[in-house]
Each structure stands twice: as structure tokens, then as C-alpha cells.
Design goal:
four-stranded antiparallel sheet; single chain; TIM Barrel; Enolase-like, domain 1; nine-stranded mixed sheet; 2 domains; 20% strand; binds calcium ion
């Protein structure tokens, strides 16, 4: 079997209502999709994570100019060899950020192709599923221009509860005093039952984050995500020693080498690599092995279109609880509820929440089919 072509599809569309998080305003949703074609006629799909402020053309250019020449003509079953070649040949201008982000999409497409060729879901190729479904938590709570906070957030929290969520994550990082009141108001509104997490998207320094952490301890926060900059691993260690709230981070880290420091220095309680950015299946299973050796749980970061969502569910299926037990601490699915015009249409609405759970797709490869009409509708050059 040979890879005969690698195509990138850059999809982008403006949002009807732009939304803000602590780093800025999001005006568009975009996706970089990778389509891998083989001489057997088997096609594989992958996705590179596109953050709210990330131009999708960067990953597409890296794939087109740097990665495509490495994988075209090769056997997709040599997926480990191809990953190491892609990393090694881009190391002088890669290692973190856009290049591993691009490699991730190619790697996911290769694994999807292998699954389709063998008529097995990717989680079977990776050694099987620890679970057939996962508990999702609602990611949302982005700010809109004309809305009033925290009243708007209380309404949104009640909507998530009504649609079946029992866990949700607030966007914070808008000023310590404002955050304290905001978090407390939402916790009071939803009661003590649901899990509540907060995410500052690294808006604070250690001093500001410490004040916030101390103030929200009574609000029973499940984890505090990216309180400070991802470059400040010592700062994470300092904060972690001061609080019983779990610290979580990882969406801005890449490859096993990048995660080595986070894991071996026990910088967080919950690791959050993004499958579509940290290196795809090939690398994230190694990050998972690294985390397992330090007994550190993983709940992946997920913020893509339906292809990234399906791939992340395949990865989630394979994560061993840390530790395995009768009632272990289970990984959750980050289930983005913010505006995204083509997230579900792209996969024919195949992934849904039922009874408060999201099922792991069991079809071949990623387990979803791709709607080419949607690609044509949102494609940009
Ligand atoms: Ca986050």
C-alpha cells in the first residue's frame, strides 16, 4: 500500500456573533483538514487544531511544502517511521507550535487510513478501548459584546444542565476580582452537584493566580486550567503546592519531549495534550505512556471540527485510568458548545450526547464519514 497524495482543505467562516476569551476576540471558526489518498483507493482524514486566533493557512503551508514530500510514495503502515522522519526533518524550524500541529493532522489521517484499510476503529489498532463512552463536559462561556455577566453565564450554565451535562468549564482570566464573583455566582446557581472547572487561558502571573486560587477554594472547583503561561513550569509547581484544586494544562505543549518536563516534574494534576496539535495518535500514545509512568491522568484538550472530535474520542477510548480501579478517575471529553458553523455538519451530525454520555465511534478508522459538500461550502484558498 502506498500513499499517492496528501491534500489539505482549509475551511473558514466568520461567526455571526464574535466571542471573547481572556486572550482576545474570536471572529472566525476555521479548520485544516488533511485528506490522505492511497493506491488501494483507501482515503484517510485528519485535522490540525485551529485555535480561535490561529490562521489556518500556516499548518496547510507546512503540510504542503514540508510534510507532503516526506509521506507521498510511502507505506502508511510505516506510520511510526513516517512520524519520526516528519519530526526530524522539520526540527530546525519546528519542535513546538505550528509544525507539530501540522504533523498531527497528517498522522491522524494515516491512522484513519489504516483503520479503514483493516476495517477496524483506530482504538482497536491501538490496543482496545478502556470504555465505550465518556462523560462530556461543556466548554463554552465565551463572552459576547452586549451580554451582561455573570447573569448570562448563569443562563448558559442552566442550558447545559438542561441538555444533560453534569460538568462544565467557565472561561475566566478577566481580572481576579471579577473572576471571584463570577465563579461564585455560577457555583451558587448550579448547586454543588455538577463538576465545575475554570480556564484562564494563561491570563495571569503566579501572584494573581494564587489570589484567585485561594479565593475560589470554597466553590469546589474540579480543576483550574492554564492559570499561568505554559512556559512557566516552575510557576505551576509553586501553585500546585498551595492548593487542593487540581491544576491542569497541556493544550500549549507539544510532543513527548515537550511533555517530559510537565510529567517528570509533576507540574500539574491533569495533563491536557491536544491530539490534533501535540503530535497525533503516534505521539500522543507516547505522551500517555509517559503520563502513566508518573501516575498522572489525562483529559485531552479538544476544540476542533467533527473530525478532530471523532479522533479525540478514539484517543480517549485508549487512555488507561490512572490508576485502574473499580471506580477510577475517568477521563472526560471536552465537548465544545461554542458557536461553530460546520463542526457537526462535516460528519453528518454523527457524534451526539445521549443520556449524559458520548459514545466512542466504532466504525472503521475514526468512525465517521466526511461530508464533502461541507468542505466545498467553507473552503478557502
Ligand atoms: Ca483551555
Amino acid at each position: 500500500m502506498k500513499i499517492t497524495d496528501l491534500k489539505t482543505h482549509v475551511l473558514t467562516t466568520p461567526l455571526d456573533v464574535p466571542f471573547a476569551f481572556s486572550m482576545g476576540w474570536v471572529h472566525r471558526r476555521s479548520a485544516v483538514l488533511v485528506e490522505l489518498i492511497t493506491d488501494d483507493g483507501v482515503v484517510g482524514w485528519g485535522e490540525c487544531l485551529c485555535h480561535g486566533l490561529q490562521p489556518p493557512q500556516i499548518a496547510a503551508a507546512i503540510i504542503e511544502h514540508a510534510l507532503k514530500p516526506i509521506v507521498v510514495g510511502q507505506d502508511p503502515f510505516d506510520v511510526e517511521v513516517l512520524w519520526e522522519r516528519m519530526y526530524n526533518l522539520t526540527r530546525p524550524f519546528g519542535q513546538k507550535g505550528a509544525v507539530p500541529n501540522a504533523i498531527s493532522g497528517v498522522d491522524i489521517a494515516i491512522w484513519d487510513c489504516l483503520g479503514r484499510a483493516l476495517d477496524k476503529p483506530v482504538h482497536k489498532l491501538l490496543g482496545g478501548a478502556h470504555r465505550t463512552s465518556v462523560q462530556p463536559y461543556a466548554t463554552g462561556f465565551y463572552r459576547r459584546k452586549d451580554a451582561i455577566y455573570p447573569a448570562e453565564a448563569v443562563d448558559e450554565a442552566r442550558r447545559h444542565l438542561a441538555s444533560g451535562f453534569d460538568a462544565m468549564k467557565l472561561k475566566v482570566g478577566f481580572g481576579v476580582e471579577e473572576d471571584i464573583d463570577y465563579i461564585h455566582t455560577v457555583r451558587e446557581a448550579i448547586g454543588r452537584g455538577p463538576k465545575l472547572m475554570v480556564d484562564a487561558n494563561h491570563a495571569y502571573n503566579v501572584g494573581a493566580a494564587r489570589r484567585l486560587l485561594m479565593a475560589i477554594e470554597p466553590d469546589d472547583i474540579y480543576w483550574f486550567e492554564e492559570p499561568i503561561s505554559p512556559e512557566d513550569i516552575d510557576g505551576y509547581r509553586e501553585l500546585k503546592s498551595l492548593t487542593r484544586i487540581w491544576l491542569a494544562a497541556g493544550e500549549n505543549e507539544f510532543t513527548k519531549v515537550g511533555f517530559r518536563e510537565w510529567v517528570s516534574r509533576r507540574a500539574v494534576d491533569m495533563l491536557q495534550p491536544d491530539l490534533c496539535s501535540a503530535g497525533g495518535f503516534t505521539e500522543c500514545r507516547k505522551i500517555a505512556a509517559l503520563a502513566q509512568a508518573w501516575h498522572m491522568p489525562i483529559t485531552p484538550h479538544v476544540w476542533g471540527s467533527g473530525i478532530g472530535l471523532a479522533a479525540s474520542l478514539q484517543f480517549l477510548a485508549t487512555l488507561a485510568p490512572a490508576p485502574l480501579a473499580l471506580k477510577p478517575v475517568e477521563p472526560m471529553l471536552e465537548y465544545d458548545q461554542s458557536a461553530h458553523p460546520f463542526r457537526q455538519d462535516l460528519i453528518f451530525g454523527a457524534i451526539t450526547m445521549q443520556g449524559g454520555r458520548v459514545a466512542i465511534p466504532t466504525g472503521p478508522g475514526l468512525g465517521v464519514d466526511v461530508n464533502r459538500d461541507v468542505i466545498e461550502r467553507y473552503r478557502t484558498q
